[in-house]
Design a protein that fits this description.
1 helix; eleven-stranded mixed beta barrel; Porin; mainly beta; single chain
Length: 241
């Protein structure tokens, strides 16, 4: 791999880690915890399940949790289709799971993921359409995420690999003002055998006409791969969120 590119990647990871440590001393830094399980079923079919827990402060003021799962099908080596459903619960900011809650939601979605590779660089495009049955009414939402992953010490995301990950995701609805949300993430991770751990910084900006708001979170992610050993290693990071 090009030495200059590798050094630049390490530098970007260092900058990311600096911002994470700096924000750890900020009273406004929340936590975003992800526990993901994935695996193969038969032939090109697989599954994923995920639990998330979020807080506005550092492990205080818990305001959100979700539980979801899905079935995916590999259309080819670089294209995957997924259909999923989940339960989502949002609470006010003034404490830990303060009642009454702000919104309860049952969501279904379909998504298409495409992958591209350039040397060690992994690019992933994810297109998602959501059908949201909420306590505040039915809503449609459309999401696009561009994920960039680079392993440092191996050619791919195999056992004992250190890597960095960066993504940006935009959210749109079918109603004015159309643009709803933006997420930016940068982090570092380590892939063990069946477990991948990732630490990163995520900024979420929610657009509202009268009250736009941005929040920063320290994200901890644990991904458990229970695929059978006879299935080839996935080249890209299974980030579902």
């Amino acid at each position: 791999m090009n030495t200059k590119i590798c050094k630049s990647s390490w530098f970007l990871s260092f900058i990311c880690f600096f911002f994470i440590i700096n924000d750890c001393f900020s009273a406004n830094l929340g936590t975003w915890n992800i526990f993901n399980t994935r695996g193969n079923i038969i032939n090109n079919f697989g599954f994923m399940s995920e639990f998330q827990l979020r807080s506005y402060s550092f492990y205080d003021e818990f305001f959100y949790y979700e539980l979801k799962g899905g079935i995916n099908y590999a259309l080819s080596e670089n294209f995957t289709f997924l259909i999923g459903t989940g339960f989502y619960h949002t609470f006010p900011q003034s404490g830990n799971f303060v009642t009454p809650s702000q919104q309860r939601e049952l969501r279904t979605w379909i998504e298409l993921t495409s992958k591209q590779y350039l040397d060690r660089f992994n690019f992933e495009h994810r297109y998602r359409m959501e059908q949201r049955f909420t306590s505040n009414g039915y809503k449609n939402r459309y999401r696009y995420r561009l994920l960039f992953v680079i392993p440092f010490n191996n050619d791919g995301l195999i056992k004992n690999t250190i890597y960095s990950a960066i993504f940006e995701e935009v959210f749109f609805t079918n109603l004015p003002p159309y643009f709803e949300r933006n997420r930016i993430f940068a982090g570092i991770g380590y892939k063990f055998d069946f477990l991948t751990f990732q630490l990163g910084y995520i900024y979420q900006y929610d657009y509202k006409l009268n009250d736009p708001k941005g929040n920063s979170f320290l994200q901890f992610s644990f991904v458990f791969d229970v695929s059978s050993k006879d299935k080839p290693e996935m080249k890209t990071l299974p980030m579902h969120d």
